[in-house]
Amino acid sequence: MSRKSERLVNLTIALLATKRFITKSEIFRTVDGYEGTAETKERMFERDKDDLRNLGIEIEVGSFDPLFDDEAGYRIRPESYALNLNDISGEDLALLSLAAEAWRGAALDGAAQSALLRLSSIGVVSDIDALPAMTPRLSSSHISFETLTTAITSRIPVIFNYIASELSVEERIVNPYGIATRNGHWYLVGFDHKRKGIRIFRFDRIDGDIAKASKGKTYEIPKDFDLAAQLSGADALMKSELDIRKGKAHVLRHMAIDVEDMGEWDRIRISYPDVERMIKLVLWHGADAKVVSNDSLRSGVMQALLDLVALHG
Known about the structure:
Blueprint: H1 3-17, E1 22-23, H2 24-30, H3 38-54, E2 60-62, E3 73-75, H4 78-81, H5 90-102, H6 109-121, H7 145-154, E4 158-163, E5 169-182, E6 185-192, E7 197-202, E8 206-212, H8 227-231, E9 238-245, H9 250-254, E10 258-262, E11 265-272, H10 275-284, E12 289-293, H11 295-312
Antiparallel strand pairs: 1-3, 2-3, 4-5, 4-8, 5-6, 6-7, 9-11, 9-12, 10-11
């Protein structure tokens, strides 16, 4: 936890624990993290108040006695801060931490950080060591990722150029309903104004930036919209048969739908959404993998090998 995050947690605990308004001078004396000159501490406190309020934490301002002009005090009412924890564990909080990190800088950043701050301030400790060392993290290289997440939460249409299957580029105006990753690709699902219906768009086919539509009216996402159901057919699966050497090509073996013992080799049947990725995977296993059926995969592997020979001699 950074020094600032630690100070915010300490301040939140102090304002929650008090049964009366506490003044800035008391905060500076009792809350760890406020250091430096009086002016420096004052600036830190003002920024911290703004940060807590931006995270949705309500800070009440008042005084000891309304009949006297006392120094202003501060507190957080427990009822305005309540969080339904149920049986949340340290491992659960570690997963939340990863999710918050994944969304850092995007539209959900504030909400994620608010949840983590509240959990930390009431003593739920993140058990990051309980997670696997190779825990996956959300990522997207598309520079308009934040624009999309903001547009979805604000219900604002977006506009972008999209590369169709025949490689033509068309401008699309879309009411974004949701974004998700599936089979190694990021997708946007939303209502396409031109097609007059819900369509699915792959991020890597979006040409250039995504922008908010300046003349677009706000919209509502249908109550029966199901992002998972929409994406279930996003990638048509292709099927192939491969021969893999016994005890080798474990990645391909793991993908197998069916395995047939052929002595020194095993014949496997696999399904996959992306032929280009599959070509690279077969090539990676070298002489331990051979494509038996699926002309597009076999010809792709052969062409890649010819290109390597031409390049390196």
